[in-house]
Task: structure prediction
Amino acid sequence: MGDDTNPDRGDAAMTRRQAVGAFGLVASSAAAASALAASSNAQAAAQGAPARGPASLLYPHESATRASRDLSGLWRFQLDPTDRGEQDRWFVGGLPTPRRIPVPCSWNDLFDDARDYFGTAWYETDFQLDPGWRGRRVCLRFGSAVYRARVWLNGEYLGEHVGGHLPFAFDVSGLAREREPNRLTVSVENKPQLDRVPSIPDPQTARMYQVDYPQTAYDFFPYCGLHRPVVLVSTPDTHVQDVTVTTAFSGATGVVDVAFAVNANWSGPAKLILTGGPRPISVPVTVENGRGAGRLRVDAVRAWSPQDPFLYRLNIRLGGESVIDDYPMKIGVRTVEVRGSEIRLNGKPVFLTGFGKHEDFAIHGKGLDLPVLVRDFELLKWIGANSFRTSHYPYSEEALMLADEYGFLVIAETPGVSLVFMDAPPIIEARYRQLEGALTELVHRDKNHPCVILWSLANEPIPKPFHTVNDIPPGAVETGTKFFQRLFAHARGLDQTRPVALVSVQGGPAEWVGQGDVICANSYNGWYVVSGRIDEAAATLEKEITGLRARHGDKPVIITEFGADAVAGIHAQPPEMWSEDYQADLIEAYWRTLRRHPYVVGAHPWAFADFKTAQSIMRVGSLNQKGVFTRDRRPKLAATRLRSLWKAAQG
Ligand code: BDP
Result:
C-alpha cells in the first residue's frame, strides 16, 4: 500500500479527457491511449519510454522478459453520493476525507453506510515504479470493476470501462513517473440502470407484486467495487499482444495451432516452444506486420480431460538469437463438440455433474478470494463434480486457470442474467450492445482455457420480469428472438470451436432456447411450483424433459438448475420444505428422473453454496439457501447424498 503523503499533488498535467467507448475496453483503452499519446509523448520521450499504444489484455504471466506488480492492498476510499469528485478534481487534489479499503474486495460488507450504496465511490493509491522497469512498456491492468470505472494516473485521465467481471488495461508508458511516486485514482459507480446488463425492472412499466431491497431483477446481491487485482505489467516495447490456441487430434498426435499478434505491426523471427511432454517441441515462425501463426505436432499427446487435466507449457518467443519477448502460458490439448444428443470431449460423451455457483463470501463479497476458490474446488472434487457454470457472470481468471488444473468442465456465462423484453426499443438496443461487448471481451479473455466447453449467453431471459402482474407485451417474444439471433451469430463468429447455448426457465421461449447447440433449462418443480410434493415434482419434471425433447429434436439437454432452499440444521420427517431432508430428497428425485433419459447430459443442482441476495420475503437472512453447502462451506445433507449418488454413477 502507498502512504498518505502526496508530494506531487496537483502539478501533473490536468487535462480532463472525454470518456471514451460506450462499453468496449478495447475501444476505450485504445482511444484513450491514442489521445494520451498525443499529449504526453514528450514526457514519455524524456523518460526514454516507448510511445503508448493499445494495451494488451493477456493475463500478466511473468517470464524472463515480463514482470508484474500486484497493487493489491489497503487503498484510500471515499463515497461520493452527490457525484462531486470529478467536478472537484479529486483525481488531482486527492480524496478529501478517505478511509481505508482493501483491494480487491466489494465495499458493501465492510462499512455500514456502504452496504446499500450504489453510487460513485473513489479509490486512490500511490505506487513507485520498479527502477528496473526504466524505459520499458508499462501497462495498468484491472481484473474487474463493477460496474463502471474511470481511471486517472497522476491527474491524467486514462479512460473508462463499463460492465463488471472482465479485465481492462491502459498503456501508461512514460506517464507513470520513474523517479517519483505515482498516484492512481479510480472512480467506480454501480447505479442501478435500466439500460445496463444486468438491469433492474422498470418501475414505470413493471407492476411488481414482490419488491426486493435493493431492487434487482436477479437473485444475488449487487456487490460493487474493485473486485479483482489491479496490476502493473512491464513488457518489452515490442511484445506479444494476443494469442489464440486451438487444438485437435490426428490419431495419437495432438495438433496445436497458435496464432498471435505483436504490437506496432512488427515483423521478424519468432518461435513457438511446447514443453511438458517427453521432449520440447519448437517451431520457427515468421511474424509479418504483427501477425504470426504456427502449428505444433505433439506425438503420443496427453489429452486434457477431467480424469487427466494435463497442461503443456507454451512459450511464444519473439526474436532470433536474442529474445525480444517471451509470453508463457499453459494449454490443454482437447476437443469439444456436440454430436447428436451428446457433448463429446476428445470424441467421448461426457455427463456433467456439478453446480451453478456464485463468486460470493462473507465480508469479501465478490472480491477475489483465493482461499475460498481453492476450498470450493476441493469440495467440488470431494463431492464428485466434474463441472460448474459461472452463473451469472464471468468468474475471475484465477478461477479459470485453476479449473484448467483441476480438470473441471466449465460453462462460461456472460453477465446477461434476467434479460427482459418489455422495455422500449432503445433500452433493449443499449442492453444488446453492452452484452455483445461483454461477450466479445469474455471470449477474448477465456478462449484459450481447455476447461471452457460451452458459452452460455444468458440466464433466464424472459419476455416480462418475474413478480410482475403485467401481461406479456405483444411482440416481446419476437424482439427476444431477434436479440438472440444477433447474439448467437456474434458468439459463433467469435469462436467456432465451442458450442453455444442460453439457459432457459420454464422451458422457454422455445424460439430463443432452440437457437442453442445444447438445450439448457432451469427447473424448480418441488419448490416454486408443485411445492412440497416431491413425487409430483418428479412426474412434472418427466413431462418437462420429454417436452424439451419434442421441441428441440435430438439436441443434448442439461438441467442447469434445480433444488430447494434448506436452512442448515432444520430437519423434518416426513421431509418438508426448508429442511435439509427435503432438499436432499428433491435433488435425489431429480437426479434419478434425469438419469433415465440418455439425451440429458448434465445435472447441476442449484446451488453449490448459499449466497447473499437482496432482502426479501423469499430470502431468510438475505441468503439464497439452495446451497448444498452453507455459505461457510459446511455440507448439508444434500451434499453427502449427492456424493454417494455421483460416486455410484462414476462406478
Ligand atoms: C433461478 C435463477 C437463480 C436463482 C434461482 C432461485 O437462475 O439465479 O437464484 O432461480 O430462485 O431462477 O433460487
The longest strand covers residues 240-250. The CA atoms of residues 3 and 359 lie 31 Å apart.
